[in-house]
Specification:
The longest helix has 8 residues. The chain starts with 27 loop residues before the first strand and ends in a 14-residue tail after the last helix. The strands form 4 sheets. Strands 3, 16, 17, 18, 20, 21 and 22 form a 7-stranded antiparallel beta sheet that branches. The chain has 2 helices and 23 strands. With 377 residues, it is mainly beta. It binds fe (ii) ion. The site of fe (ii) ion (FE2) has 5 residues, from strand 19. Fe (ii) ion binds next to strand 19.
Length: 377
């Protein structure tokens, strides 16, 4: 007979009675969970923090990057493509910091896009019409849609997340009901304006397929010739401020409760300001080994309460296997500080089932000392 692991909680030694509360004096709690916080789980209580390493040797380590230091090519040349930062078979994460409008239409034939507007505002033109965008918007562009970004601002910063060969969906809200977290009524779609708004010059449609580019040229505008459309495939957007956080004063909910979009092989979660838990409950992230997912976190706005030395537009990448959790400063700043009643951070997390690879462009803006940031001062 094959061995069937226990499907009921066992308990050995000195533990708290329930997860994330009344942790034994002097101990730290580690969550050892499966399937990105949805699966079977154990909590271990240890007398040392798992991040109190002397040193780490080998390829597996935590990373942080300062993306504001990355001067993308499209800052000086509007005709180039976004800069690829991270990738695997299921997703590609790129950065655009263009200061002026795209002189071509892009069409992605590899996957759907989610463009997160970290900075800037403008209008996105597409086969489905025009949609204004501003800070904090997530714009979802179905695979095969022609579009171009026309910024109104000069300081722009777009994080582009390609769901390679899958669609973006909203997660099932289960018992929370269909209007929790994101009320679908908050979703905005483009409008067809009175055309034409653009001259009938030669226009390029630049198609990405298998990470190669093909350009098709027309002597008319190939987007503004849409006279109408019907159906349930279109461009749509929601703002990170439209995401309603879920919390419990008596239980530190796992990051999976912030899931905003689901794609094949990864999820996108939104961390937004919310009340903190009661003082006897864990209020900062637990130490964990999210053993099946790489965790990439993009810091959008506000006060990043769980991380020390992190600035706006920084990215951290925590691979599974080597544990992570709050840095020592978070205990005084948040956990042991009753005056702190709310979190003030806005961040976008991308959890990927397959390991993310880094490009040379993003390695150039890595902070090499991040792995030592858990050291007690
Ligand atoms: Fe994590």
């Amino acid at each position: 007979m094959p061995y069937t692991p226990p499907r009921f909680p066992l308990r050995k030694g000195n533990t708290s009675r329930k997860a994330h509360a009344n942790i034994p004096e002097g101990a730290v709690e580690i969550e050892h969970g499966r399937k990105g916080f949805f699966g079977n789980v154990s909590h271990l209580y240890k007398s040392h923090k798992p991040t109190s390493w002397n040193r780490v040797e080998g390829p597996l380590k935590h990373h942080s990057f300062s993306l504001l230091n990355l001067k993308t090519e499209d800052m000086s040349d509007p005709n180039v493509n976004p800069t690829l930062l991270f990738y695997n078979n299921e997703c590609e994460i790129s950065l655009s910091r263009r200061v002026s409008e795209m002189p071509f239409y892009a069409r992605n034939a590899d996957g759907d896009l989610c463009i997160f507007i970290h900075r800037g505002e403008g209008v996105m033109e597409s086969d489905y019409g025009r949609i204004d965008f501003s800070k904090g918007d997530y714009i979802i562009i179905p695979r095969g849609t022609s579009y171009r970004m026309v910024p109104r601002s000069e300081d722009n910063f777009y994080l582009i997340i390609e769901a390679s060969d899958s669609e973006y969906n909203l997660p099932d809200r289960g018992m929370l009901g269909p209007t929790a977290q994101i009320d679908p009524a908050m979703i905005e779609t483009p409008e067809l304006p009175e055309y034409p708004t653009r001259p009938d010059d030669e226009w390029e449609v630049r198609i990405k397929r298998s990470d190669e580019y093909t350009s098709v040229y027309y002597d008319f505008n190939p987007v503004e010739d849409t006279i109408g459309w019907k159906g349930d495939v279109t461009v749509w957007k929601v703002n990170i401020d439209d995401f309603n956080p879920v919390m419990s004063p008596k239980y530190h909910l796992p990051p999976s409760v912030h899931t905003t979009f689901i794609a094949r092989g990864f999820v996108i979660c939104s961390f937004v300001p919310r009340p903190l838990e009661d003082p006897d409950v864990l209020r900062i992230p637990f130490y964990h080994s999210n053993i099946e997912y790489d965790e990439l976190l993009f810091y959008h706005d506000g006060n990043f309460f769980s991380r020390h030395g992190i600035n706006e537009a920084d990215v951290t990448l925590h691979p599974p296997g080597i544990l992570h959790g709050p840095q020592p400063q978070a205990f005084d700043k948040v956990q042991n500080n009753p005056a702190k009643t709310h979190s003030g951070e806005k961040a976008v997390m991308i959890d990927t089932r397959s390991p993310l690879k880094m490009t040379d462009a993003v390695k150039d803006v890595e902070n090499p000392e991040y792995i030592n940031s858990w050291k007690e001062e």
